[in-house]
Design brief:
single chain, about 350 residues, alpha/beta, Rossmann fold, 2 domains, seven-stranded mixed sheet, five-stranded mixed sheet, globular
């Protein structure tokens, strides 16, 4: 029988199993021992494993990252948690110049098994410095792996793989996914970092997506199917490394590409995917690839501005319709009911 739990519970279960497997796994960061447990992901861990392995820490991101690097070189497997990706920007020197490079600089003699959880998202209460999607920044750095799970199943399997990877992994969670439910096995299982997931199969167009945009894509794909447009939907799961073979295989079948990204257009993961496809699958393309990203402006805070800023399934439907020479209107086909655009569901009670 399927066992249904949500994304946050899957993260929590991965922690429990990793800490049972290896006593050197530790978890720390601002709010990990808070009653709300970082959106529910760390609830109960300190009670179960004690304050020596699960603990809050003073707000000094650069220092806490340096501590993780030193501890990892001594055999510890630290998992750091940032309740916002934006907070990690204070530790870029440690991440880029130390964690990402030590394995290379010391001829493979040092392993840096650090997992850095960064939470992104949007909605009321957020703004330019609390809702940035900067996965492209980290993916640009040699020596870092960058993971972005969408489903609860992937969240658990990828977190376990990240914790037991011998070098640094940036693990990016979208907070709109924490209440998403799915079938998650109880046992310890690992998902290979760099292996995508085929969400839907079709012959008309390839849609490559990541993180929360995959949820919007699933809604769009179902509606498009009702109008005789069948999509190959690939959820990347990790944006560094990227599963190029699956993307190339799909392009050879469909000849069309649409990439969905949670970040801004300029310098995006989406742009990298389009460049790679043009370099490697040019003769298979029936038309130019397209991408849906955010505008190149700081993230707005106000209700009226965010409505025009973020992209959802309506935009996906309209873009695919244009690529397929159809006349579909996503704003007519998608029924949002009375739910405000800046919350994922009626369960959402605020930014923290």
């Amino acid at each position: 029988m399927p066992r249904i739990i949500n994304f946050a519970q899957a993260i929590n279960e991965a922690f429990v199993q990793a800490m049972e497997i290896d006593k050197n796994v530790i978890c720390y960061g601002l709010g990990v021992d808070d009653p709300k447990g970082v959106f529910g992901t760390t609830i109960g861990l300190q009670t179960k494993y004690g304050k020596e392995r699960v603990f809050d820490i003073p707000a000094s991101e650069n220092a806490m990252t340096g501590i993780a690097i030193g501890a990892s070189m001594a055999g510890i497997r630290p998992v750091m948690t940032h309740q916002r990706l934006d907070f990690s920007l204070l530790s870029l020197d440690q991440i880029i110049n130390n964690a990402a490079k030590f394995h290379y600089m010391f001829g493979g003699q040092h392993k840096i098994p650090i997992t850095i959880r960064m939470i992104v998202g949007r909605g009321w209460g957020q703004g330019p410095t609390h809702s940035q999607n900067l996965q492209a920044l980290f993916a640009h750095i040699p020596g870092l792996k960058v993971v972005m799970p969408t489903t609860p199943y992937d969240a658990k399997g990828l977190l376990l793989s990240s914790i037991f990877d011998d070098n640094p992994v940036i693990f990016i969670e979208h907070r709109w996914l924490h209440n998403m439910e799915g079938d998650v096995p109880e046992n310890d299982y690992r998902i290979e970092i760099g292996k995508s997931s085929q969400i839907n199969e079709g012959n008309d167009i390839t849609i490559v997506s990541m993180s929360y945009m995959t949820v919007e894509a699933i809604h769009a794909v179902e509606i498009l199917k009702d109008h005789d447009i069948n999509c190959d939907l690939i959820d990347l799961r990790s944006v560094k490394p990227i599963d190029w073979s699956s993307i190339h295989k799909s392009i050879k079948k469909t000849g069309r590409l649409l990439v969905l990204d949670t970040g801004v257009t300029e310098g995006s993961i989406a742009g990298e995917i389009i460049a790679n496809v043009c370099e490697n699958c040019w003769n298979d393309l029936k038309e130019q690839p397209h991408r849906i990203c955010l505008p190149g402006t700081p993230t707005p805070t106000s209700y009226s501005l965010t409505k025009a800023y973020y992209k959802r399934s309506e935009t996906i439907i309209n873009t695919v319709s244009k690529m397929m020479n159809k006349d579909l209107d996503g704003y007519v086909l998608v029924d949002r009911k009375d739910l405000p655009h800046d919350v994922p569901g009626d369960w959402f009670k605020g930014p923290f």
